[in-house]
Amino acid sequence: MTASDTSTARRHRKGPPERYDFRRPMTIAREHARIVEMACETFARQWATQLTSRLRVMASIELDKLEMVTYDEYIATLDPHTTLVLFTADETRSTALLQIPSNTTMLWLDYLLGGPGLERQENPRELTEIETALFRSLLDSSLADMRYAFSSITPMNPKIRGLQYNPQFVQAVPASEAVLVANYSLTVGDRVSAATMMFAADALLNPLKVGEGEADPSAAQREEQRVSFERLRLSMNDVPVDVGVRFNSITVRPRDIIDMAVGDVIELRHAASKPLRIVVEGRTIGHGVPGNNGKQLAVKVTDTHRES
Q: What is the distance of C-alpha 248 from the center of its chain?
Protein backbone atom coordinates (compact mmCIF):
# COMPACT_ATOMS: atom_id res chain seq x y z
CA MET A 1 0.00 0.00 0.00
CA THR A 2 1.40 3.37 -1.00
CA ALA A 3 1.31 6.58 1.05
CA SER A 4 -1.50 7.93 -1.11
CA ASP A 5 -3.55 4.78 -0.53
CA THR A 6 -3.08 5.16 3.21
CA SER A 7 -4.21 8.78 3.19
CA THR A 8 -7.26 7.87 1.12
CA ALA A 9 -8.21 5.12 3.58
CA ARG A 10 -7.86 7.57 6.45
CA ARG A 11 -10.15 10.05 4.71
CA HIS A 12 -12.80 7.36 4.31
CA ARG A 13 -12.68 6.60 8.03
CA LYS A 14 -13.31 10.20 9.10
CA GLY A 15 -16.53 11.12 10.83
CA PRO A 16 -18.28 9.98 14.01
CA PRO A 17 -18.54 6.20 14.60
CA GLU A 18 -21.84 4.57 13.76
CA ARG A 19 -23.70 2.40 16.26
CA TYR A 20 -24.05 -1.28 15.32
CA ASP A 21 -26.31 -3.79 17.07
CA PHE A 22 -24.80 -7.27 16.70
CA ARG A 23 -28.05 -8.81 17.96
CA ARG A 24 -29.87 -7.38 14.93
CA PRO A 25 -27.43 -7.07 12.03
CA MET A 26 -28.56 -4.60 9.37
CA THR A 27 -26.30 -5.49 6.49
CA ILE A 28 -26.81 -6.12 2.79
CA ALA A 29 -24.73 -8.48 0.67
CA ARG A 30 -22.45 -6.42 -1.54
CA GLU A 31 -23.81 -7.87 -4.78
CA HIS A 32 -27.40 -7.29 -3.66
CA ALA A 33 -26.66 -3.72 -2.58
CA ARG A 34 -25.15 -2.93 -5.97
CA ILE A 35 -28.16 -4.30 -7.86
CA VAL A 36 -30.59 -2.25 -5.74
CA GLU A 37 -28.39 0.86 -6.08
CA MET A 38 -28.39 0.53 -9.87
CA ALA A 39 -32.20 0.26 -9.86
CA CYS A 40 -32.49 3.34 -7.64
CA GLU A 41 -30.09 5.30 -9.88
CA THR A 42 -32.04 4.32 -12.98
CA PHE A 43 -35.25 5.48 -11.35
CA ALA A 44 -33.57 8.78 -10.35
CA ARG A 45 -32.64 9.55 -13.96
CA GLN A 46 -36.13 8.74 -15.22
CA TRP A 47 -37.74 10.74 -12.41
CA ALA A 48 -35.59 13.76 -13.25
CA THR A 49 -36.64 13.53 -16.90
CA GLN A 50 -40.31 13.45 -15.90
CA LEU A 51 -39.90 16.48 -13.63
CA THR A 52 -38.08 18.44 -16.31
CA SER A 53 -40.89 17.70 -18.76
CA ARG A 54 -43.79 18.45 -16.40
CA LEU A 55 -42.36 21.42 -14.47
CA ARG A 56 -40.72 23.00 -17.54
CA VAL A 57 -37.52 23.66 -15.60
CA MET A 58 -34.25 21.76 -15.50
CA ALA A 59 -34.26 19.03 -12.83
CA SER A 60 -31.62 16.54 -11.72
CA ILE A 61 -31.77 13.80 -9.10
CA GLU A 62 -28.83 11.88 -7.69
CA LEU A 63 -28.70 8.89 -5.35
CA ASP A 64 -26.64 9.82 -2.28
CA LYS A 65 -26.70 6.49 -0.45
CA LEU A 66 -28.64 3.31 0.14
CA GLU A 67 -28.96 2.06 3.69
CA MET A 68 -30.75 -0.61 5.68
CA VAL A 69 -32.34 0.45 8.97
CA THR A 70 -35.44 -0.38 10.97
CA TYR A 71 -38.67 1.36 10.05
CA ASP A 72 -38.73 3.09 13.44
CA GLU A 73 -35.22 4.48 12.88
CA TYR A 74 -36.19 5.72 9.43
CA ILE A 75 -39.29 7.55 10.69
CA ALA A 76 -37.23 9.20 13.43
CA THR A 77 -35.07 10.93 10.78
CA LEU A 78 -38.02 12.66 9.06
CA ASP A 79 -39.36 16.15 9.75
CA PRO A 80 -42.54 16.37 11.84
CA HIS A 81 -44.39 17.68 8.77
CA THR A 82 -43.46 16.35 5.35
CA THR A 83 -45.18 14.92 2.29
CA LEU A 84 -45.36 11.13 2.41
CA VAL A 85 -46.61 9.27 -0.64
CA LEU A 86 -47.77 5.74 0.25
CA PHE A 87 -47.82 3.31 -2.66
CA THR A 88 -47.88 -0.41 -3.30
CA ALA A 89 -44.83 -1.47 -5.23
CA ASP A 90 -44.22 -5.19 -5.77
CA GLU A 91 -46.49 -8.19 -6.35
CA THR A 92 -46.77 -8.81 -2.59
CA ARG A 93 -48.54 -5.42 -2.32
CA SER A 94 -46.20 -4.32 0.45
CA THR A 95 -46.37 -0.61 1.26
CA ALA A 96 -43.52 1.67 0.17
CA LEU A 97 -42.97 5.36 0.89
CA LEU A 98 -41.73 8.30 -1.13
CA GLN A 99 -40.91 11.25 1.13
CA ILE A 100 -40.60 14.79 -0.24
CA PRO A 101 -40.14 17.91 1.95
CA SER A 102 -43.22 20.10 2.28
CA ASN A 103 -41.54 23.21 0.84
CA THR A 104 -40.34 21.22 -2.18
CA THR A 105 -43.90 19.98 -2.74
CA MET A 106 -45.25 23.55 -2.75
CA LEU A 107 -42.44 24.65 -5.11
CA TRP A 108 -43.37 21.96 -7.61
CA LEU A 109 -47.04 22.91 -7.41
CA ASP A 110 -46.12 26.52 -8.18
CA TYR A 111 -44.36 25.36 -11.34
CA LEU A 112 -47.32 23.12 -12.29
CA LEU A 113 -49.69 26.08 -11.98
CA GLY A 114 -47.52 28.16 -14.32
CA GLY A 115 -45.72 30.15 -11.63
CA PRO A 116 -42.02 31.13 -11.62
CA GLY A 117 -41.23 28.71 -8.80
CA LEU A 118 -41.55 31.03 -5.83
CA GLU A 119 -40.90 29.58 -2.40
CA ARG A 120 -43.71 30.84 -0.19
CA GLN A 121 -43.02 31.85 3.38
CA GLU A 122 -45.80 29.92 5.08
CA ASN A 123 -46.13 27.22 7.67
CA PRO A 124 -46.25 23.64 6.36
CA ARG A 125 -49.81 22.56 5.63
CA GLU A 126 -51.74 19.76 4.00
CA LEU A 127 -52.53 20.03 0.31
CA THR A 128 -55.94 21.14 -0.86
CA GLU A 129 -58.09 18.85 -3.00
CA ILE A 130 -56.97 20.55 -6.23
CA GLU A 131 -53.31 20.56 -5.17
CA THR A 132 -53.55 16.86 -4.26
CA ALA A 133 -54.93 15.99 -7.70
CA LEU A 134 -52.12 17.92 -9.44
CA PHE A 135 -49.43 16.41 -7.24
CA ARG A 136 -50.73 12.85 -7.69
CA SER A 137 -50.81 13.24 -11.48
CA LEU A 138 -47.16 14.34 -11.35
CA LEU A 139 -46.19 11.34 -9.24
CA ASP A 140 -48.25 8.81 -11.19
CA SER A 141 -46.14 9.37 -14.30
CA SER A 142 -42.92 9.30 -12.26
CA LEU A 143 -43.71 6.12 -10.35
CA ALA A 144 -44.71 4.38 -13.57
CA ASP A 145 -41.03 4.45 -14.56
CA MET A 146 -40.27 2.29 -11.55
CA ARG A 147 -41.44 -0.77 -13.51
CA TYR A 148 -38.45 -0.52 -15.84
CA ALA A 149 -35.95 0.60 -13.18
CA PHE A 150 -36.64 -2.35 -10.88
CA SER A 151 -37.41 -4.96 -13.54
CA SER A 152 -34.11 -6.74 -12.85
CA ILE A 153 -35.18 -7.32 -9.23
CA THR A 154 -38.94 -7.94 -9.17
CA PRO A 155 -42.02 -7.03 -11.24
CA MET A 156 -43.52 -3.75 -10.06
CA ASN A 157 -46.79 -1.99 -10.72
CA PRO A 158 -46.80 1.02 -8.36
CA LYS A 159 -50.18 2.33 -7.28
CA ILE A 160 -50.53 5.39 -5.04
CA ARG A 161 -52.58 4.60 -1.93
CA GLY A 162 -52.66 8.09 -0.46
CA LEU A 163 -50.79 11.06 0.97
CA GLN A 164 -49.88 11.62 4.59
CA TYR A 165 -48.10 14.49 6.30
CA ASN A 166 -47.16 13.33 9.81
CA PRO A 167 -44.62 10.46 9.81
CA GLN A 168 -45.55 9.44 13.36
CA PHE A 169 -49.07 8.50 12.20
CA VAL A 170 -47.90 6.33 9.30
CA GLN A 171 -47.35 2.62 10.01
CA ALA A 172 -46.35 1.25 6.63
CA VAL A 173 -44.53 -1.77 8.13
CA PRO A 174 -43.88 -3.01 11.70
CA ALA A 175 -41.61 -0.70 13.68
CA SER A 176 -38.77 -3.23 14.07
CA GLU A 177 -38.84 -4.51 10.48
CA ALA A 178 -35.82 -3.85 8.28
CA VAL A 179 -36.32 -1.38 5.43
CA LEU A 180 -34.16 -0.17 2.55
CA VAL A 181 -33.93 3.60 2.28
CA ALA A 182 -32.64 5.41 -0.82
CA ASN A 183 -31.54 8.97 -0.07
CA TYR A 184 -31.75 11.38 -3.03
CA SER A 185 -30.53 14.91 -3.72
CA LEU A 186 -33.12 16.89 -5.72
CA THR A 187 -32.18 19.92 -7.79
CA VAL A 188 -35.05 21.73 -9.50
CA GLY A 189 -33.99 25.01 -11.08
CA ASP A 190 -31.65 26.52 -8.51
CA ARG A 191 -33.35 24.93 -5.49
CA VAL A 192 -31.68 21.95 -3.83
CA SER A 193 -33.49 19.62 -1.42
CA ALA A 194 -33.49 16.01 -0.30
CA ALA A 195 -35.95 13.14 -0.65
CA THR A 196 -36.09 9.52 0.46
CA MET A 197 -37.71 6.36 -0.85
CA MET A 198 -38.37 3.40 1.44
CA PHE A 199 -39.10 -0.25 0.69
CA ALA A 200 -39.55 -3.19 3.02
CA ALA A 201 -36.20 -4.98 2.82
CA ASP A 202 -37.77 -8.38 2.15
CA ALA A 203 -39.71 -6.99 -0.83
CA LEU A 204 -36.44 -6.35 -2.72
CA LEU A 205 -33.95 -8.78 -1.18
CA ASN A 206 -36.07 -11.94 -1.16
CA PRO A 207 -36.48 -11.99 -4.99
CA LEU A 208 -32.69 -11.61 -5.31
CA LYS A 209 -32.08 -14.52 -2.92
CA VAL A 210 -34.66 -16.69 -4.67
CA GLY A 211 -33.10 -15.89 -8.02
CA GLU A 212 -29.72 -17.06 -6.78
CA GLY A 213 -31.20 -20.27 -5.43
CA GLU A 214 -32.85 -21.11 -8.75
CA ALA A 215 -29.67 -20.60 -10.75
CA ASP A 216 -28.41 -23.84 -12.34
CA PRO A 217 -25.11 -24.93 -10.74
CA SER A 218 -22.13 -25.40 -13.00
CA ALA A 219 -20.58 -28.80 -13.68
CA ALA A 220 -17.78 -28.03 -11.22
CA GLN A 221 -20.30 -27.10 -8.52
CA ARG A 222 -22.29 -30.30 -9.09
CA GLU A 223 -19.11 -32.39 -8.83
CA GLU A 224 -18.15 -30.59 -5.62
CA GLN A 225 -21.59 -31.31 -4.16
CA ARG A 226 -21.30 -35.00 -5.11
CA VAL A 227 -17.86 -35.35 -3.53
CA SER A 228 -19.01 -33.59 -0.35
CA PHE A 229 -22.03 -35.87 -0.06
CA GLU A 230 -19.89 -38.98 -0.55
CA ARG A 231 -17.42 -37.83 2.11
CA LEU A 232 -20.28 -37.21 4.51
CA ARG A 233 -21.77 -40.66 3.83
CA LEU A 234 -18.43 -42.39 4.43
CA SER A 235 -17.75 -40.45 7.61
CA MET A 236 -21.21 -41.32 8.97
CA ASN A 237 -20.33 -45.02 8.62
CA ASP A 238 -17.60 -44.60 11.28
CA VAL A 239 -19.68 -42.74 13.88
CA PRO A 240 -19.88 -44.89 17.09
CA VAL A 241 -23.39 -45.67 18.36
CA ASP A 242 -24.66 -47.64 21.37
CA VAL A 243 -26.68 -50.79 20.65
CA GLY A 244 -28.86 -52.42 23.29
CA VAL A 245 -31.12 -55.47 23.60
CA ARG A 246 -34.37 -55.04 25.53
CA PHE A 247 -37.27 -57.00 26.93
CA ASN A 248 -40.73 -55.52 26.95
CA SER A 249 -40.96 -53.17 29.94
CA ILE A 250 -43.46 -53.42 32.80
CA THR A 251 -44.96 -50.83 35.13
CA VAL A 252 -44.41 -51.11 38.91
CA ARG A 253 -45.13 -48.94 41.95
CA PRO A 254 -42.45 -47.04 43.88
CA ARG A 255 -42.96 -49.30 46.95
CA ASP A 256 -42.10 -52.33 44.81
CA ILE A 257 -38.75 -50.75 43.98
CA ILE A 258 -38.10 -49.72 47.60
CA ASP A 259 -38.91 -53.22 48.92
CA MET A 260 -36.85 -55.01 46.25
CA ALA A 261 -34.35 -57.49 47.71
CA VAL A 262 -31.86 -60.08 46.50
CA GLY A 263 -33.65 -63.23 45.38
CA ASP A 264 -36.87 -61.47 44.30
CA VAL A 265 -38.28 -62.47 40.91
CA ILE A 266 -39.54 -59.81 38.50
CA GLU A 267 -42.08 -61.21 36.12
CA LEU A 268 -41.74 -59.67 32.67
CA ARG A 269 -44.57 -59.46 30.16
CA HIS A 270 -42.36 -60.97 27.54
CA ALA A 271 -43.14 -64.44 26.18
CA ALA A 272 -40.20 -66.86 26.29
CA SER A 273 -40.65 -67.53 22.57
CA LYS A 274 -40.74 -63.85 21.64
CA PRO A 275 -37.48 -62.30 20.31
CA LEU A 276 -35.85 -59.33 22.04
CA ARG A 277 -35.79 -55.82 20.61
CA ILE A 278 -32.51 -54.47 19.20
CA VAL A 279 -32.43 -50.74 20.00
CA VAL A 280 -30.17 -47.88 18.82
CA GLU A 281 -30.65 -44.41 20.34
CA GLY A 282 -34.10 -45.37 21.61
CA ARG A 283 -35.32 -46.65 18.22
CA THR A 284 -35.98 -50.32 17.43
CA ILE A 285 -33.97 -51.41 14.40
CA GLY A 286 -34.63 -55.16 14.55
CA HIS A 287 -35.21 -58.24 16.70
CA GLY A 288 -33.09 -61.18 17.82
CA VAL A 289 -32.93 -64.27 20.02
CA PRO A 290 -30.46 -64.53 22.94
CA GLY A 291 -27.56 -66.96 22.93
CA ASN A 292 -23.86 -67.03 23.51
CA ASN A 293 -20.73 -66.63 21.44
CA GLY A 294 -17.98 -68.41 23.33
CA LYS A 295 -17.97 -66.99 26.85
CA GLN A 296 -19.91 -63.86 25.84
CA LEU A 297 -23.66 -63.40 25.70
CA ALA A 298 -24.89 -62.61 22.20
CA VAL A 299 -28.03 -62.04 20.17
CA LYS A 300 -28.76 -63.61 16.83
CA VAL A 301 -30.58 -61.17 14.54
CA THR A 302 -33.85 -62.55 13.24
CA ASP A 303 -35.15 -59.48 11.39
CA THR A 304 -34.21 -55.87 10.71
CA HIS A 305 -37.65 -54.31 10.98
CA ARG A 306 -37.28 -50.56 11.74
CA GLU A 307 -39.68 -48.24 13.50
CA SER A 308 -41.23 -45.61 11.20
A: 51
What residue spans of 56-95 are helical by DSSP H? 71-76
Q: Which of 179, 214, 249 is a domain's end point?
A: 214
Asked if 118 and 154 sit in the same domain, the reply is yes
CB atoms within 10 A of CB 186: 22
Beta strand 191-200 pairing with 243-246 = unpaired
Mean pLDDT taken over the chain: 84
Residue 4 included in any domain: no
- CATH of residue 80's domain is 3.40.1550.10
Q: Where are the alpha helices (DSSP H) in 215-305?
A: 219-236, 254-258
- Total domains present in the chain: 2
Give me the sheet containing 296-303, strands edge to edge. Answer: 243-246, 276-280, 283-293, 296-303
Model confidence pLDDT, tens digit, residues 79-122: 999 999 999 876 667 889 999 999 999 999 999 988 888 777 77
Whether 266 and 158 share a structural domain: no
The reported pLDDT for the residue numbered 214 is: 47
Number of other residues whose CB lies within 10 A of the CB of residue 270:
15
pLDDT score, position 9: 45
SS3 223: helix
Q: Please say if the pLDDT value at position 171 is more than 70.
A: yes
β-pairing, 156-164 vs 83-90, is antiparallel
| Count of CB atoms situated within 10 Å of the CB of 189 | 13
Q: Is this structure's pTM higher than 0.70? A: no
Whether residues 143 and 288 share a domain: the answer is no
Decide: 173 and 186 in contact? Cβ < 8 Å. Answer: no
Q: Are residues 137 and 247 in the same domain?
A: no
Domain with 269 in it: 241-303
Which three-class secondary structure state does DSSP give residue 179? strand
CA distance 251 to 29: 58
- Report yes or no: 129 and 56 within 8 Å, Cβ to Cβ: no
Q: Residue 212: pLDDT above 80?
A: no
